[in-house]
Specification:
Number of domains: 2
Strand order of the largest sheet: 1-2
Oligomer: single chain
Number of strands: 2
Structural class: mainly alpha
Order of helices and strands: HHHHHHEE
CATH topology of the largest domain: Arc Repressor Mutant, subunit A
Radius of gyration: 21 Å
Amino acid sequence: MEIDQQLEQRINIKFLVKLGKNGPEIHQMLQQVYGEDALKERTVFKWVQCFREGHEDPKDDARSGRPSTSSGNENIDRVLSLVLSDHRTTVRIIAEELGLGKSSVQTILTEHLEMKKVCTKIVPKLLTPA
């Protein structure tokens, strides 16, 4: 389920709580609208409770914990240099060479470097004559 759809459902839960609906009613309504993509009943009850207690923001609160360091500038530069040296390299090979997770390499390529796979080459999303 997409994050946007989860947020949309939480906004709907907040609205229905303000209308005085209870958890089971809200869950049933979400199932009618979203089908299999509806939030789980337990999750709906959690958000109903939060909104009843005065929580106004339907977005998740920031969580404590160790911040991700795999997408740091140093690793972004290392991935970029490997890709530029061989456009036919794979995410798995980059991950093995740099000692990073495949998902971290994929995130660096797609989100930070704005690259994607075209045929067998990794290229920038906006192509240039080069």
